[in-house]
Amino acid sequence: MPKLSNATPKYRKHRATGQAVVTIGGRDHYLGPWGTKASKVEYDRLIAEWLASGRPTRQTSSHGDITVMEVCRAYWRFARGFYTKNGAATGAIYHIKVVLRYLRKGYGHLPAEEFGPLALKA
Description:
Helix content is about 45%, strand content about 15%. The chain is of the alpha+beta class. Strand 4 and strand 5 (about 90) form a beta hairpin.
C-alpha cells in the first residue's frame, strides 16, 4: 500500500474518462470535465474541506465505528421478520442464525468497514 502524504492533493486528468480527479484520503473524487471552471471550483471546495479537517491522511467513516456485531444484530432483526411464512420461521432463518453466530464470534469486534471479501471467504 502506498504511503499517504500530507502534501496538497493534485488536480489531474483521468485519461480514460477525460474527467478531472483528485485523490483525498485514498479515495478518488471525480470533479467533472477536466479543465473546466466548474471542475476547478469543485477541486477548490474539496481541498478547503480537507484543509479545514486538519489534512487527514486516510478516509474517515461517516458511519462512525459500526462493528460487524452491530451489522449482524441489525440483519437478524430484519431476517426474523422477512423469512417467515404464515407466521412461522422458514428453514432459511436457521442457516442465517448459524452464519451470524460465526461472524459475531470471529469478527464481531472488527469495524464493519474493515470486513472485506477475504474475511467473508474465510
